[in-house]
Specification:
The chain has 384 residues and is an alpha+beta fold. 15% of the residues lie in helices and 34% in strands. Strands 17, 18, 19, 20, 21, 22, 23 and 24 form an eight-stranded antiparallel beta sheet that branches. A four-stranded antiparallel beta sheet has the order 5-6-7-8, with no helix packed on it. Strand 9 and strand 10 form a beta hairpin. The structure holds FE2/S2 (inorganic) cluster (FES) and fe (ii) ion. The site of FE2/S2 (inorganic) cluster has 8 residues, from loops. GO terms for molecular function: 2 iron, 2 sulfur cluster binding; metal ion binding; monooxygenase activity; oxidoreductase activity, acting on paired donors, with incorporation or reduction of molecular oxygen. It comes from Actinoplanes awajinensis subsp. mycoplanecinus. It is found in: Membrane.
């Protein structure tokens, strides 16, 4: 019997620790300060996010992404986006453990199965057949990184749209989507500074389409007041893309109508998500009571296997109760959106998976994940 050391007994606490045994990612923690250590594979069955990023509360592990909770036996006890717990939601048992010489060891024969390999990475050759954002027009770049290669703009197939340069290495399968708001002179537009993340563009797109993570990942910005339950919604498909309209409750303390006592702070919002392969995304938020509209254009550039560049453009109409928001209001909105994006990037830093899983059985999709399921199907189709 082969026992592999993973951590000193004394360094393991109620704060989960990421470790490896024989190259297999594991996590170890104590459900209570004096309890025996517990070891599981370092991935949540839902979206494979590391459970080493989870927090322990009342003896339960709470996943950092969507707040699913697991007890010390691995049983799933809460799925906040819906009331019920789907079968297969529990964690597979971790390897047997033994403590000797002050060190926790795991049984080599009991190690969990490796991560799935059917992943869409940033260097997938199929991505050559798509339009990719490669920089803001104002950056005046000569060369860009895309799909692990360097492209000279002067020698490539390019076009300009929304103030950005787009590049398609090979004949693109589908064009850029249209966004009526961007051409509407009533809208005020503003770019966020482009950001970088080590997560693959597929995972970044999945994160953008996901609503169920708001209360957990965005607790410090806007998430704390968000509904945890995600109402049923529908998704309609388009060529290499999809669209979904969802109505949500949210708190709108900045609405002048609230300050004037005309409207309650709890209001309705209509969120329209638009996705087009490979990584074009749009979210249009209409405040149904206050009448303001905010559109977020969101694009990901798969630069290399370990780097994705993110472009976010915001378009406003009626924010702050005036048709033309002032520069100050726009700057405030941009700063807020940057703080929101930073929360997503923080979790993405911790991902151990190198691409978006495309096989349905490798993750555990629930009702709230309908958009993510469409994303995976569309990208699998784009790749074939
Ligand atoms: S709850 Fe863990 S990834 Fe969604
Ligand atoms: Fe987010």
């Amino acid at each position: 019997m082969q026992w592999l050391p993973i951590a000193r007994d004394a360094e393991v606490s109620t704060r989960p620790l990421a470790v490896t045994a024989d190259g297999v990612p594991l996590m170890v923690y104590r459900p209570e300060p004096d309890a025996d250590p517990v070891v599981f594979a370092d991935r949540c069955p839902h979206r494979l996010v590391p459970l080493s990023a989870a927090v322990v509360e009342d003896g339960r592990l709470r996943c950092a992404y969507h707040g699913w909770e697991f007890d010390a036996s691995g049983a799933c006890v809460t799925v906040p986006s819906q009331g019920s717990i789907p079968p297969r939601a529990s964690l597979p048992p971790g390897p047997p453990i033994k403590i000797f010489d002050g060190t926790i060891h795991v049984l080599a024969a009991g190690l969990p199965a490796p991560d799935p390999t059917e992943l869409l990475t940033n260097e997938d050759p199929a991505l050559r057949h798509g339009w990719h954002p490669v920089g803001l027009a104002t950056e005046r770049l000569d060369e860009v990184q895309l799909l692990g290669e360097t492209f000279r703009l002067a020698e490539s197939r390019t076009q300009e749209r929304w103030g950005m340069i787009w590049l398609a290495p090979d004949e693109p399968k589908v064009g850029l989507f249209t966004d009526p708001d961007a051409d509407d002179r009533d809208y005020v537009g503003a770019w966020l500074p482009p950001a970088r993340t080590p997560a693959s563009a597929g995972l970044v797109a999945d994160n953008f389409l996901d609503v169920a993570h708001f209360p957990f990942v965005h607790a410090k910005t806007f998430g704390a007041a968000e509904e945890k339950t995600v109402p049923r919604y529908e998704v309609s498909t388009e060529p290499y893309g999809c669209r979904s309209v969802q109505e949500q409750w949210f708190d709108n303390p900045e609405d002048p109508g609230v300050l004037a006592g005309i409207r309650p702070v709890r209001q309705r919002r209509r969120a329209t998500y638009v996705y087009r392969a490979p990584f074009q995304l749009l979210l249009r938020l209409e405040e149904l009571d206050a009448g303001a509209v905010k559109t977020i254009l969101f694009f990901a550039q798969p630069e290399s296997a370990t780097s994705t560049r993110i472009y976010t453009k915001m378009l406003f109409h009626g924010i702050g109760g005036v048709p033309d928001p002032s520069a100050e209001v726009v700057a405030g909105e941009v700063a807020f959106e940057e703080a929101v994006l930073a929360e997503d990037l923080e979790l993405q830093q911790r991902l151990r998976i190198t691409g978006l899983p495309l096989r349905m059985r490798d993750e555990l999709h629930v009702r709230a994940d309908l958009l993510g399921v469409h994303l995976r199907r569309i990208l699998a189709d784009f790749r074939s």
